Amino acid sequence: MKKLARFLQPYRWWIVGILVLIFLQSMSTLYLPNLMSKIVDVGVMTGNIRYIVDIGGFMLGVTLLGVICSIGAGLLSSKASAGFGKLLRDETFAHVEKFMLYEFDELGTSSLIVRTTNDIMQVQQFVNMLLRMMVMAPLMALGGIIMAVYTDARLSLILVVVMPILAVAIFLILRNGFSLFGMIQSKVDQLNRVLRENLMGVRVVRSFHRTHYELKRFGAANEDLTDVSVRAYQVMAGLMPILMLIINLSTLAIIWFGGIRINDGTMQIGSLMAFIQYVTQIMFSVMMVSAMFFMIPRAQASARRINQVMEIEPQIVDPVVPAPLSESKGYVEFQGVNFCYPGAESNVLEDITFQAAPGEVTAIIGGTGSGKTTLISLIPRFFDVTAGRILVDGVDVRQMRQEDLRRKIGFVAQKAVLFSGTISENIRFGNEHATDEEVRHVADVAQVSEFVEGMKQGFDSVISQGGSNLSGGQKQRLSIARALIRRPEIYIFDDSFSALDFKTDASLRRALKEETGDSTVLIVAQRVMTVMDADRIIVLDEGRIAGIGTHAELMKTSDVYREIVSSQLSEEEIA
Length: 575
Hints:
The chain is an alpha/beta fold. Helices cover 63% and strands 10% of the residues. Strands 6-9-10-3-11-12 form a six-stranded mixed β-sheet. The mean pLDDT is 83.
């Protein structure tokens, strides 16, 4: 929690205001029993109506002051805690945005979602209560003890017996609750992961008729969370009855011994009533603190989980002094590149060396698992090379700012990812300042217009989350349009034509050739027909280059390429 306290810095003056208001509220609350005892001992016992009215009116004024201070403190604490939550969410999200792929894998997507939403909400609620109760409770307890001793020192000895009993009871109950609330958050992660997998894979679940299996899986995760929650709240549920029992027994003891002192003439009735009020305030202050302790285990577990996210340092960072950008545009060069995933035993890529220049199309082809996607992921620096180096416009990508590097690249991922919003907004994701004419132009090039014109609202048609209301080919074409509108120096297409029929594929490649003629184009593909016309084809086999050249050259020199071609094309098509 200490590490997260810095997010309260912008609200420090609000916190000062909260402390002042709570102090005034506490003083007014502590002063009321004293006024009540005067009304009873002086006004009621002597029949002095004027005194009762005067002191009663003053009590109403003190009560009104306490109410105003309480409302003001509640308003300021709510705003401060809500602002704290907002800043913490912003900071956490901004930090997660810096993560690379293996940082995401370290915690998992589902866990990151829970930590950014549920965990921060738990801490925010704790801060809201902390700003009010943890200030008021000690003031009320300390002030109550002082006033109780001032009212009757001998009767205050009851507190000497009661307070240690209260402390022991609270300690024993909370000691068992801390570990259980930490387990609850991990069970929430597990439940969220099962739910997310089921929702994302609902088509697979339905097609294989595995609904009952998923129900059992969700039920097991739900039952785990329920069992831990029930155990935690059972432990904490025992706290309030024990506290009330101790408070009521204390009140009974005060009335018993106070009655004896009144009978002896050493104490007045009003003083006994005031004493009971002070002891009640002390006990309820302890109950307020115990309510805080009820939230501490869960808030502490949530804060620990948030700190785990904030403490992860992205392994790919910008250089302290970036290299100056070159005047050349679009040159890509791999020099003896090796790459190994963190924790893997062997390299995925070994000794990769080639060049790609503007105006050229470089295609990468190979079997499944040969390292094609990994290779092109190194260019925008999704990963850093293990050995060798990658140059873009003559500058090592590790010596460039990530923003400058990625501004040069239009990347179309293997899995087409779209965002909820309109078709126009998804295309403009590549360039938010693009005009309507530019949007329509790239849509024509990407063969998007043909299906968009069939929609009622055209480019203003809404895409559902993840593009679930579009086919795979439509999503791929929209992803290509999104990359085209950037007008980058380097285009990277990672198997971006796999869902297209041959006619659309051919039309799209012809249009792309005209649109990207001055840029460097790198294409990863499974289809031989997609790469046959490339200026350079790189054949990958188990992470190594098995051949580089044109289609005709590779048919003569590369056995691996010939096997790929013969597996896809007939002898007539090859000829």
